[in-house]
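Try it yourself: sequence plus adenosine-5'-diphosphate, in.
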Amino acid sequence: MGYEAIIGLEAHVELNTNSKMFCSCRVVDSTNSEPNCHVCPVCSGMPGALPSINKRAVEIGILVSLALNCNIETTSIFARKNYFYPDLPKGYQISQYEKPLATNGHINIGDSQNTTKIHIRRVHLEEDTGKLVHTNDYGKTKGVSLIDLNRAGVPLLEIVSEPDIRSPLEAVNYAKELHSVLTYLDVNSGDMEKGVLRFEANVSLRVTGSKQLNARREIKNLNSFKSLQRSIEYEIEQQIGAYKANETIRQETLGWDESNGKTIFQRSKEHSHDYRYFPEPDLPPINVNDEWKKEILSNMPELPHTKRSYFSSLGLTDYDARVLAAQRSIAEYFELAVKLGAEKNPHVLPKPISNWITTHLFSIINEVGKSIDQINIPPNHLVELIDLVHSGRTNANSAKIVLREVRKTGAAPEIVITKLGLEQTNDQATITKAVQQVLDNNPDQLTKLLDGKDSIVNWLFGQVMQSMDGKSNPDIVRTTLQDAIKRASNKRGAQ
Ligand code: ADP
Ligand code: MG
Ligand code: ZN
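Structure, out:
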């Protein structure tokens, strides 16, 4: 009997507003700031303190919801979700419950051949909790838990999908698309290791072909795509085991232990009535009219899927289009380079630009840990360099050196090539001489090659390139070398 996995994801997105959701405390990077320095009576839950709604957070919520094709509700209402936990000083979290900000959206995942629509049930606003720090290293006291309220009250947007996801990989693709949309909209840094975007995975199984939804288990606080994927894979295995052993799956909440690759039982699932939700008496409803929606919509940038289809229309593969569109800064860099190429260097086509970005620029980006607009290689310099390689002024090998010098000095590629003497040698006579020299110096290798050890040709090629300081035209070197080998072979045959 085959089983099918049914997966629904909840995403918690911290919004990068200036101030918190219901007070004027600053939103700071809670992984990198002095604890409890951005706290006031409202976000520390002092009795009698009155919250007020952060308008910017609401606007961001609407912007994200529109990007996710949701229906924005004309009226949404905050409620109190009552529960006790040490990181929640008020004893309740202000969240939207019966009347969320937006409902009924979707995003598409997959590629142009094979698209899957994942529906979004709801998007609602709430506030983050404080942060507990468990430590064994606090003065002379061992094993203490500390509380940092800098994060308490930071605006959170919760995005809840329908259980439309069918595999761990689809879950990751959905999460990546969401990550992309949020960073395009510039409402979240996307730094998942800092916990600003966290996922919860709801997983159940059913017999393939059945329409029934079975009890699910929920894995909390997944902070990376890797743990999202691994935890769901693990949970599916667990549930298959349980079904086979005829055990009943109960609704439960689990944690994920990344280092051991295991889920940990946390609690049997609470139900919404356990939270005694009721409308927040200290906050008015949010009313969204068409005019406000239109104004927000007018600030919508182009989204990843639009960029992807544009890049595909330029002749890129689905894979390349996806890689280049994943980050807005890279997508915009690529677009500008393509535009400059079309205007000034018509030999420089989208495909080579894409290759140069995904190989050479990505390797520099990884090396220095900066974004594409911070590495000091503007699109016009890249395009000019590709053109210079195309026209034979320098070769691809030297171009890598040129790129690094451009980055260091900001000088144009043409100037760097002259300054470093990296012009390509295209002269046939010089190359023929270098090839002959290498063959004369390595008679044993040549014999082995003629005896059938074909791979030696690459070694000889490398020797010729090296003997010319890597500056010769590799295409001419290759054909010249092949001709010389053929001649040597004919000569041997004739003996
Ligand atoms: P709650 O509000 O109690 O967390 P919801 O019904 O709103 O529960 O669902 C929360 C998440 O669980 C949603 O993402 C939804 O898609 C997912 N989900 C609901 N039922 C199932 C199921 N049987 N299997 C897997 N996921 C489910
Ligand atoms: Mg949940
Ligand atoms: Zn505050």
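One thing you can check immediately is this: The longest helix spans residues 474-494.
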